[in-house]
Design brief:
By secondary structure, the protein is an all-alpha fold. It has helices spanning about 5-10, 35-50, 55-75, 80-95, 95-100, 120-125, 140-150, 170-180, 185-205.
């Protein structure tokens, strides 16, 4: 069931949903890039599932629904997608040392994460504080070294800094159509489910759930849960009178 605020957004003919706006569900805000997020989660989940044997029932079921939902997402392209893809392709070709060669723009996923800027000269200490110098009177040699450290030039990283352009957003009508086809609530809820499945695969691989139990269950342990064991069969229809 869709929330009232999301329905109002479609009724008011807003072309795009505003990222960060309430969805009508407590604690769930409008996602800024649901299409690229889902493509990343589904693609990564399928890569992980390939490590599980094909006879695993979990892999078969998870792979089927993941591929089905991924095909739905790939069936929708936001306005201006082709132009963006060409610009992204050019950017990748300009920086092969960052993205690698022959990369498809649709397979490049960016995530913004605020990290504290660090001087590479501190990395050698494994992010630990460098040992403090000795206190007290220093020799002329030690004072000359200290003055050299104080006048060092600011560190400039050698790695390329690429300004990546985000994929164009989907229209509100496209998102509504995706939600109807998937049938699992708002697209933000679909993302939450995809994130949970993405993490669950790691747990299933770690536990090797497809292997047989170390201790075989006793004979008849699961008979109680078999079908049609504790319910009467369908009553026979009455015979027709001549």
């Amino acid at each position: 069931m869709k929330s009232t605020s999301r329905l109002f957004a479609v009724v008011k003919s807003e072309r795009f949903l505003t990222p960060g706006n309430p969805t009508g569900l407590t604690g769930l805000l409008t996602h800024p890039a649901p299409r690229s997020q889902l493509i990343y989660l589904y693609s990564s989940t399928l890569d992980k599932l390939s490590k599980i044997p094909e006879h695993s029932v979990y892999r078969q079921s998870a792979e089927a629904i993941t591929k089905q939902r991924l095909s739905i997402i790939n069936g929708f392209k936001p306005p201006g997608y082709e132009e963006w893809a060409q610009r992204a392709k050019n950017k990748i070709e300009e920086h092969p040392n960052v993205f690698g060669k022959d990369r498809d723009p649709s397979s490049v996923f960016m995530s913004a994460q605020l990290t504290e800027e660090k001087d590479a000269r501190d990395v050698q200490w494994d992010n630990r504080k460098q040992p403090a110098g000795l206190e007290g009177t220093r020799t002329p040699e030690e004072r000359s070294q200290a003055s050299g450290v104080a006048t060092r030039a600011a560190f400039t990283p050698e790695a390329d800094i690429v300004q990546w352009e985000n994929e164009p957003p989907l229209e509100a009508s496209q998102i509504a159509e995706i939600e109807d086809k998937i049938g699992a609530g708002l697209i933000e809820e679909v993302i939450q489910v995809a994130e949970g499945e993405h993490q669950l695969v790691d747990t299933m691989i770690e536990s090797k759930s497809w292997e047989d139990l170390e201790e075989k269950p006793p004979q008849g342990q699961w008979d109680y849960f078999a079908r049609d064991q504790h319910t009467p069969g369908t009553q026979e229809p009455p015979k027709a009178k001549n």
